[in-house]
Write a structure and sequence with these properties.
Order of helices and strands: HEEHHHHHEHEHEHEEHEEHEEE
Strand order of the largest sheet: 8-4-3-9-10-12-11
Distance between the termini: 59 Å
CATH topology of the largest domain: Rossmann fold
Number of domains: 2
Structural class: alpha/beta
Number of strands: 12
Oligomer: single chain
Radius of gyration: 21 Å
CATH class of the largest domain: Alpha Beta
CATH superfamily of the largest domain: Vaccinia Virus protein VP39
Shape: globular
Length: about 290
C-alpha cells in the first residue's frame, strides 16, 4: 500500500508495505520493555517490522501508527499478548549446552536423589522453557539416573511468557529432526513413537508442570528451588533489570541450589559465586 504523504516525510526506519518510523519503533520498544523487561535497540528494527507486519496484515490494520494506538486500547488487550509472543525469541533444542546437563547428572542429581528418597521435596525450575525442550531435557536427565523419580516428591516447573509455546510444550510432541539430540536409549525408554513424531510418555510428563509466567512480573510460586535453569533470556534485559532478576532468583534458591545461565551471560550481582562454567551457587555470605 502507499503510505500517506505525512508518513513518507517521517524518519522511516524500514521501508515496506507499512512504513515503519522511529516513533513507531520507540513506542513498541517502550511497550515491550515495560511489560517484559526486554530491551530492543534500533538494530532490531527490521526484525520488529518483519514480525509485526504479519500481524498488521492479519488484522487488516492499515499502518503502524494505527497498530501502536490499537495495542494501548482495551479492545487491543489480546493483541498485546500476540505482539509480545511475536517479538520474543524461542530458539531452543534438546540438551542445549550439554555441559549443564552433565553437571546436573553428575554433581547435583545424587544429592537430589538422596533428598527425595529421604522424603524431602525436590524442585527444579526451567524459567524460560520456550517449547519445552529444556525442561524435558532436565526430566530425561533425572529419569536416566532416577527412573522412579515420579514416585517421590520431585517436580520440574517450566514457565515462559509466550502462552503459545507453553501450550505446545504441554502436548509434548516433537518432530523426528527435533529429537535428534536425545540419546536413543532415553528416547526409546521415555518417549512414544507416533505418526507425527515422538511424544513424551507419562513418566516424563508427570514430572513437568507448564505455566505462563512473566519474569519481571509477580512470581506466585512458594518455596525454594534446588535447581534453576534460566538461560539465554536475561541477556535481552537492561543491566538494571538483569541485576534485579538475579537477586530475585537468589531469594528463591535453596541453600545448596544451582543456577544455570546462558553461555553469553554472567552474574556480577553480590551473593553469588561460580560453581562451574555458567553455573552459579549462593556464596557463603547470603
Amino acid at each position: 500500500m502507499n503510505a500517506p504523504a505525512l508518513i513518507r516525510k517521517r524518519d522511516v526506519m524500514v521501508e515496506g508495505d507499512y512504513p515503519f518510523t522511529k516513533r513507531n519503533f520507540d513506542q513498541i520498544a517502550s511497550f515491550l520493555r515495560e511489560r517484559t523487561g526486554i530491551a530492543l535497540n534500533e538494530a532490531k528494527a527490521a526484525l520488529v517490522y518483519s514480525r509485526l507486519a504479519k500481524r498488521l496484515r492479519l488484522l487488516g490494520i492499515p499502518d503502524f501508527d494505527t497498530y501502536c494506538h490499537f495495542i494501548e486500547t482495551a479492545p487491543g488487550a489480546g493483541e498485546q499478548h500476540e505482539m509480545i509472543n511475536a517479538l520474543t525469541t524461542n530458539v531452543t533444542r534438546f540438551f542445549r549446552e550439554p555441559h549443564h546437563f552433565d553437571h546436573l547428572r553428575k554433581e547435583v542429581a545424587p544429592r537430589l536423589i538422596a533428598a527425595a528418597k529421604a522424603g524431602k521435596k525436590v524442585r527444579l525450575w526451567s524459567a524460560a522453557c520456550s517449547s519445552g525442550e529444556e525442561p524435558y531435557s532436565m526430566a530425561l536427565t533425572l529419569l536416566d539416573v532416577f527412573p522412579d523419580a515420579g514416585r517421590h516428591n520431585v517436580r520440574i516447573l517450566a514457565t515462559d511468557i509466550d502462552a503459545k509455546v507453553v501450550a505446545r510444550a504441554r502436548v509434548g510432541l516433537y518432530r523426528d529432526d527435533a529429537v535428534t539430540p536425545i540419546p536413543a536409549s532415553m528416547r526409546d525408554r521415555w518417549m512414544v513413537r507416533e505418526q507425527d513424531g515422538w511424544r513424551f510418555g507419562d513418566a516424563a510428563r508427570a514430572l513437568v508442570t507448564f505455566n505462563e509466567l512473566n519474569l519481571i512480573g509477580d512470581w506466585p510460586m512458594k518455596g525454594r528451588f534446588d535447581v534453576i535453569f534460566c538461560r539465554n533470556v536475561v541477556i535481552y534485559f537492561e543491566e538494571d533489570t538483569q541485576s534485579v532478576l538475579w537477586s530475585r532468583f537468589k531469594q528463591v534458591m535453596a541453600p545448596d541450589a544451582r543456577l544455570y545461565i546462558g553461555h553469553s551471560e554472567r552474574i556480577e550481582t553480590p551473593g553469588f559465586e561460580s560453581a562451574g562454567l555458567t553455573i552459579y551457587k549462593i556464596g557463603a555470605a547470603r
